[in-house]
User: Fold these one by one.
Assistant:
Number 1:
Amino acid sequence: MSTIDKMKKSFFLVLTILAVTGCTNRNSVKTNSPFNKIEAIEEKYQPLPLTEVKPQGWINEQIRKNLDGFVGRLDTLVPQLIRDDKIYGESRLTKKVKNKEVGALGDAGDWQVQFLWWNSETQSNWRDGYLRSAILLNDKQHLSNLQKYVDYILSTQDKDGYLGIYDKDLRYRFDNENGELWAKATLLRGLLAWYEQTKDQKILSAIERAAQNVIDNYPAFHSHPFYSKQPNVGGTSHGLMITDVFENLFRITGKETYREYCLFLYQDFSEQELNESAQYKKLMNDTLLLSSHGVHVYEHLRSVAAAYYASGNPQLKIALDKFLNKINDETTASGAGVGDEWIGGKKADATKRGYEYCSLQELMHSYLELLLKTGNNAFADQAETIFFNAAQGARHPSESCIAYLKSDNSYYMTGGLNGDNSNKKQTRYTYSPVHQEAAVCCVPNAGRIAPYYVQHMWMKHNQSLVASLLGPCVVTTTVNSHRVTITEKTNYPFENTIEFVVSADSEFDLKIRKPGWVTKFSVDTEYIEEDGYVVIRKNWKGSQSVKINFIPEIVERKDINHENYFTYGALVLASPLAAREEKTKTFAIPGFYNFKYSPKHLKTYWYAGYPVVAVQNNPLIFKTILLNDSTHQKETVELVPMGNTILRQVTFKDPPH
Ligand SMILES: [Zn+2]
């Protein structure tokens, strides 16, 4: 070896050492990096396990209906996507089978088989909603079916901890679209719920081994799970949502590694070339509206929040705040984030923009995580707005089916947006218990939304128990090691009086969230008000009751385009349109159909400046005077909560001058 060669060698050695130390002590390399860990932030509230809050009243009825309907029967409605495809087990994706399986997809590159992750999402998101629903209702029959499923899934776990959809020849070695992390994220979210139910250490250990297997194969800050040679990746970028799993594992075990891994994932996601609006640099660019796939954007909000809390880095806080502002531009009166299915750099619009059911669940879940982290009850308002309005308004009021895409002003549900049927293949604006022509993604998420709402109705904060989302339920938990049961008697948001029956023999604070819309309220006991919460500090004895009366008013509001709409308490009101129903498909299982709707007489209105008044003897029917936008005549129009409607008008423009 010549002297020059030796010099070169030692030079490279120094570079290597610098690179290695740089990687292990990242702060010394990029002092201004938004991904530097400064100090992790403690979450303000602690979540309750799924088993401690039970739905009552209308929410209980809705979950029952789901279980008896599309949630309990999806595997028989689309057996080929669920029962017949053991994608996590015998039918894991492998190079060996691609030739016969990929043919139908057209020109097969040698990479295409890894694209075929969709059934994993359908199966695991469906099961997540299904098992949470069965747990909440303690339905023995469904629980016993699900136990068999969980046993089966655990039997597919490899010795090294791998749980997933790829055989050994494919896993963790991708340079393009893949479902490695996404298939695990959806699966493990469900298994975490099962662990909460059973407290079976075998389940927790299986989840931790699967998580460790991810860390072993995608080492933190030394690998690139989001690298792709082309920027349009669905499964890969959905995979960022494995932060849900790592955050929950951190909460359960207290192991900081899990939370730090979320920071790494968001960093790598941000640094790769991907068409994703939640990447750090894009969030920081105020001139960029959100543009990528809606569902991704709304779920990625949680991952940005996770990375910020894992690092305490103020630059990520700025990115998170900018993200929330950008989402606000995409939000309709009903709380939905638009995207049909792409957000496309265009703002929300009550008539011209649709929203996907998947996005309703994902955005609500993201707001719930932000509520947990910050205690800021504005996030609870946003979650309630979505659940009570957009989500109720996109499920069929009486049949077991949902709209894949829906808009606030919904004049036709015949395939395309508001009667635009130029694309014959567009079937998303219809009602179906599966939506197989588009994708079986929204129906599974429609089964998740109520259980996620219920679980977050109560949270803990130091010595207090927090009624964070309102509605009929019972919570049984421990506060300061004392057992507490609180029954929340109410028909909220359809009524606004809530009685909390507290059974406890200990001292703690009962914190009741005061919804953002409340201006007047009364409480029948001594309380203080703190950060938008009504706090009752008491040494509770036996069974005691607290009654709180939020006095609802009809409020005229404006959406982001200055169109007028009306709310009554937490409910957004709509002018319902009588519809002609067309049954377009009858499924082999009795009671399941696809439907299309067109208006009997399409009448739409402009705002006329008249007040909205309640119709006597019916607390949820209102009337007002609006301007018919074709005759220009004033008409008295009935308004009802939008959650119960199919075709409707929610926003009313000012008449043109
Ligand atoms: Zn969907």
Number 2:
Amino acid sequence: MKTTIKVVLMNLLLSMSTMVKAEIQVLACEPEWGSLVNSLGGKQVNVYQATTNQQDPHHIQARPSLIAKARRADLLVCAGAELEAGWLPLLLRKSGNPDIQAGKPGYFMASDYVTLLDKATTLDRSYGDVHAAGNPHVHLDPERLLKVAQALSQTLIAIDPDNQENYQINLNSFTQKWLNMGQKWRKQTLSLTNKSIVVYHRSWIYLQKWLGLNEVGALEPKPGIPPTSSHLTQLLVRMKQTPADMIIYASYQDSKAAKWLSQKTGIPTVMLNISPDEGESLFDWYQQLIDRLVKEKK
Ligand SMILES: [Zn+2]
């Protein structure tokens, strides 16, 4: 009798476990991709973010806790185009997880689905130590972001076809809202067209292109090389002749050089969150970014 009950219970548990499919475990390299996966995956995904918007995604440590997350991930979502070249290859190797290696369905690099700006045309790296494959900061362009969203939704369906309908519904509502917000942002930012900016790193080129901002200088002498005094002195001379409208830097970047140049020239500095805060939607993040730029411009 007891054995019969046991067997019945076990069968019941088994059938329940096949009914309730486990969530897809996602490792997102940057907060923007974590936020996007949450919007597109809804209840079907459990997302862990490797970095916050207070960390420089070019340079983080493949720490043991991160390796443990990579080991259990079904899907890896990153910017790609060498943004994570300093740590992702090691993380992937140490994870020993075959599902998220390059070429597998669980390996998703956003840059693979959009055209990149700033592709190096020659083999010499005089342009800088980073981003020879093209500029990877693609999430700052609303149009490119939507293309990535479509591709990412397809990837979720490929990994978890049982929930295809849910993913489709989520993508449709995300797309609709994103397009509506995009129109609003365009109107809101008309006054930014042709404003000139100095940046810390070439993090913003997709945003610049979308808004019609002109980059007239960078605090880094070359992408990935921290500001030097000789470079800053040259920049100062230039800014005294033709001042820019704003100096822009990301929340994780050192503000010293930006503030120095601002003090010497009177050009205002603008600190922007290059990625969403933890739990923040892409809609809210982009809105505050736009609000800040519009408010701070001269
Ligand atoms: Zn970069």
